[in-house]
Amino acid sequence: MKLKLKPLTTGEFAKICNVKKHTLFHYDDIGLLKPDYYDENGYRFYSYSQLNLFYFISMMKELGMSLDEIKFYLNSRTPEQMEELFTSKINQISNEIKRLKENKRILKSRIDKIQYASEVKIDKIYKEYQEEEYYLRYRDIDIDDPTDKDVYKLFEDNFSKYTSIKGLDTSRYSIITIEEICGEYRYNNEYILKKINKKVNSHKLVVKQKGEYLIGYHKGYYNTIEQTYDKMTIYAKDNNLVIGSNSYTKEILDVLTSNSKEEYLIEIIIELK
Predict the structure, then answer these.
(1) Closest Cα partner for 194 from 220, 171, 212, 223?
(2) Which end of the chain is more exposed for a tag (fewer CB within 10 A), N or C?
């Protein structure tokens, strides 16, 4: 037995689709979705099968298509043409899912750093064994005389390239070479680093060797970081530890999580021989 369904009034169709009747009137006026028929009084009536068309229109709008584009496809649709459209939209959705997952990962990494910072004992200096890590050197800055030109050069080529080095998800890493002169330590040029997961063949590769490191935390900005370096140097001497050739810094709290530079938190990792 064939099921005969009563046609839907404009109000009923709009209620099911969760839109105002004006939207249906507009779609009718522009020829995008016309009623199944009009009665003798000019009232619009829709069929249940047209719900699929309305859903399609709504979905395509959500995926960035204009009403004119949607109308073109509906008015000239063939199975082959619609297959091509659906395939392109699947690819678009897949890319959007990837982007959203990446955004989720970025936000989660920020939460992890905030939680890590809450557990840090600012005044504690300690020795720790660390595994080998890999970085790519981005650009060197003279830490004794940084200039606007140096900073501007970091993102002159492409802003997205800059944010990939110092982005929402990653801490800013840097390496500072250490030179000992007459028992005193001098911290030389700084290289901005991007941490990577594996060793690669690149002239920009920096390998942080596995071994013992001296760990300390600096609360504040880089203009006062020497104070913490001095404390760590004294700690090393008092505990008969020999400082190596490199020091690494990692931003834990920065401009995205602290309103004041005085509240920034930087982890200092000094190589030990």
Answers:
(1) 171
(2) N
**Cα separation, 16 vs 23, whole angstroms:** 13
Strands of the 184-196 sheet, one edge to the other: 126-130, 211-219, 265-272, 243-253, 173-181, 184-196, 133-141, 205-208
Which amino acid makes up residue 247?
S
Q: Rounded to whole angstroms, how far apart are CA atoms 56 and 49? A: 12
**Phi/psi zone of residue 87: left (φ > 0), alpha (ψ -120 to 50 degrees), beta?**
alpha
For residues 180 and 243, is the Cβ–Cβ distance under 8 A? yes
Distance CA(68)–CA(217), nearest Å, equals 58
User: Distance (Å, rounded) from C-alpha 26 to C-alpha 38?
Assistant: 16
pTM: predicted TM-score of the whole model, two decimal places? 0.68
Per the CB < 8 A criterion, the answer to whether 215 and 129 are in contact is: no
- At residue 121, φ and ψ (nearest 5 deg) are -95, 105
Question: Which residues 6+ apart lie within 8 Å of 207 measured at CB?
Answer: 132, 133, 134, 135, 199
Torsion of CA 215, 218, 224, 230, to 10 degrees: -30
